Amino acid sequence: LEIEFETFQRYGYSPAQILRMATLGNMEIVRRDKELGSVEPGKYADLVLLETNPLTDIKAIKKVWMVLKNGRIYYEKK
């Protein structure tokens, strides 16, 4: 995934565009965007918290601090 994101950036996509394609964009393709793909009331959401801002540097996706799945901490960096 990291290589794919960095490749998109090399071809001129902004980090915001890349993150949208990877989340809501993919759910739009499979027609699940009404329930998945973004954090909004009424939608299901698993969250990945990063150490730094991926909108500044897409490589931030490599530095995961915490993963929340089904409302529970699935992974937490110690």
What does this entry look like structurally?
This protein is 31% helix and 19% strand. The protein has 2 helices and 3 strands. It is flat. It has 78 residues and is α+β, with helices and mostly antiparallel strands. It has a 3-stranded antiparallel sheet, with no helix packed on it.
What is the strand and helix layout of this fold?
Layout: H1 2-10, H2 15-29, E1 47-50, E2 64-69, E3 72-76
Antiparallel strand pairs: 1-2, 2-3
Main sheet? 3 strands, antiparallel
User: What sequence of helices (H) and strands (E) makes up the elements?
Assistant: HHEEE
- Mean pLDDT comes to 93
Helical/strand content category: alpha+beta
Distance between the termini: 23 Å
General shape = flat
Q: What's the count of strands? A: 3
What kind of assembly state do the chains in view correspond to? single chain
Give me the number of helical elements: 2
Q: Low-confidence stretches at least 5 residues in length (pLDDT < 50)?
A: none
Binned strand content:
15-25%
Strand order of the largest sheet: 1-2-3
Radius of gyration computed on alpha carbons: 13 Å
- Helical content, roughly? 25-40%
